[in-house]
Amino acid sequence: MTPVNSRRRFMLQAATAAVALPMFGQAFAQALKKLPADNATAKALKYVPDAATSKEPTKKPGSACANCQFFTAATGACTLFAGFAVSPKGWCTAWAKKA
Ligand code: SF4
Fold first, then answer.
1. What share of the chain is helix, strand, coil (3-state, %, to 5)?
2. What is the pLDDT of residues 59-69, one digit of tens each?
C-alpha cells in the first residue's frame, strides 16, 4: 500500500468513526431498559422510582437519583444497575451525595 493510499484509508476511517461513535452512544442510551420493580438488587436496595413514596427512615430529605453520585443524567444509568435506567426522581438505600 502506498503512503497516499494509507493516509486516505486512515482519513476515511477517522471520518467514519467521527460520524458513527456519537450514533453508537445514542443507540446505547436508548438501549437502557427501565429498571424493573422485581429486580433482585432493586428490591434489596429498596429502590423506588419516586423518592417521595419511600418510607425508609434513612432517606435524607431531597435525596434522589438525580443528585446521587452513581447516576448518569445523560443516560439514566446507575452504576449499581448495569444495563438499566433508573428514574431521576428515584431513590434507593445506596444513595450517596454527588460530589
Ligand atoms: S444508587 Fe443512586 S442513582 Fe442508583 S438507584 Fe440508588 S439512589 Fe438512584
1. 40, 10, 45
2. 999 999 999 99
